[in-house]
Amino acid sequence: MDSGANALIVVSNRGPVSFEWDPANGRLRAKRAAGGLVNTLGPGARRHGALWLAASTSETDKQASKAALLADELVRFWPVPVSHERYHAYYDVISNQTLWFCLHGLWDTPRRPRFDRHWWSAWSSYREVNELFATEIDRAAPRGATVLVQDYQLALTPSMLARRRPDLRISSFIHTPWCSPGELSSLPDEAASEVLAGLADGGPVGFHSPRWAAAFDDCVKAVLGRAAATYVAPAAVDAGDLKKVAASEECEMERVALDEAVAGRKLIVRVDRMELSKNILRGFWAYDELLETRPDLRGHVVFAALVYPSRVGLAEYQAYSQEVLSLAAVINARWGTPDWTPVLLHAEDNYPRSIAALRSYDVLLVNPLRDGLNLVAKEGPSINERDGSLVLSRQAGAWLELGDYALGVNPFDVSQTAEALGRALDSSPERRSVDAGCLRRVAEMRTPLDWFDDLLNAACGSGSGRYPPEQLH
Ligand code: F6P
């Protein structure tokens, strides 16, 4: 293999694009994938002309790769083929229903988790898919290449790869929070050790917040009896790209439509995946309590919730989505009048509409139960045009950077959230202007390229004969 090609490899479960047939010309075309990870990783991957490996269950992806199609003009895409059955076990059962729930503290403990023989069979598939990734990276990477592995779906890949290829420079990055040793101990002992060693023995492990890095280190100490090499790199918004979308015709049309619906009232906005950890129900309960305790606001405020579908194959997400839709309907039935709809709920993936809402809010509600960072908390202030306020969960990784200029909430405390929404709506124009200016400045202090450089620098401290990992500490 030519040592110049593929010198930088990024690896994630979800790829930068999915390919589909264009009915107009019968050719394959690339469609940009949704999600924060792709927006965070994309600019650096493009700048360096990286090769991007991601899981693929589709025949079209395979054909696109045979035809050496580019994911976009600068990034090449290398699909890692995974069968539908194995993908279900690796992605749905282990990555999402197990690791995601554990890291975000989402267990419904009287019922879940349940580590039975079906789970163990899924765990074998998780191992196999991680091994498959290691094999494909091994095939793709020339000697001394740099490999940036992303997220908990691929927690075993970094060490599997480091064992095979000591010449590679590897760093991994976890976009979620990390949990405490006590919470991690709900996983079967063997699985907890594998996940921790899978990451810690494969080079430095990065997080968006020092809090999650410290929690990971605590877990490694408690379970493996040693320290981990970690680094902290908070992700940043691509302000240029956001402003381009904000200035687009589609976004302008959405903004006009939203303005008409809001009709001069105050506007509360949230933009999230339809996701349990985003705490959408308590956001609505808080709004309901606000309308109950503050009769002066009735008829004078609208809550636009833009919650786009996510992990729709999982029963937990389907049930949650139903609860969110019903609760919005209950609030509208309870408080609405012929000329006022208190909640505007949009449950589709419409990026220009989300950006239009972020341009227009008076208050942005970001109240996750726990979140690695929460990019929306930075995107909003970067493009908001009304000096809007931010109500922010103290459990979001972004709290550390933005908390000084936001109204902080305990995400479980509905009354406190209602009160914070009320205070934000009452905020004086002067206060709003000062806070919004500070939020914007902090949100735009770093770029996705700075974040990417942090990952590269971390990787440069690994590999090239510096394995075994004890030498990294
Ligand atoms: O933030 C963690 C993460 O898994 C990212 O990797 C991804 O962008 C997002 O959540 C959405 O998850 P999924 O790819 O499962 O839809």
User: What is the total tally of β strands?
Assistant: 15
Helix content: 40-55%
CATH topology of the largest domain: Rossmann fold
- The termini sit apart by 32 Å
Walk me through the structure:
By secondary structure, the chain is of the alpha/beta class. It folds into two domains: 252 residues, 3-Layer(aba) Sandwich (Rossmann fold), CATH 3.40.50.2000; 205 residues, Glycogen Phosphorylase B (Rossmann fold), CATH 3.40.50.2000. The chain is 47% helix and 16% strand. It is built from 18 helices and 15 strands. It has a seven-stranded parallel beta sheet, sandwiched between helices. The protein has a six-stranded parallel beta sheet with strand order 12-11-10-13-14-15, with helices on both faces. A two-stranded antiparallel ribbon has the order 2-3. Helix 5 links the parallel strand 6 and strand 7. It is globular, with a radius of gyration of 23 Å. The relative contact order is 0.12. The protein binds 6-O-phosphono-beta-D-fructofuranose. 6-O-phosphono-beta-D-fructofuranose binds next to helix 1.
In short:
This protein has 473 residues and is an alpha/beta fold. It has 18 helices and 15 strands. Strand 2 and strand 3 (27-32) form a beta hairpin.
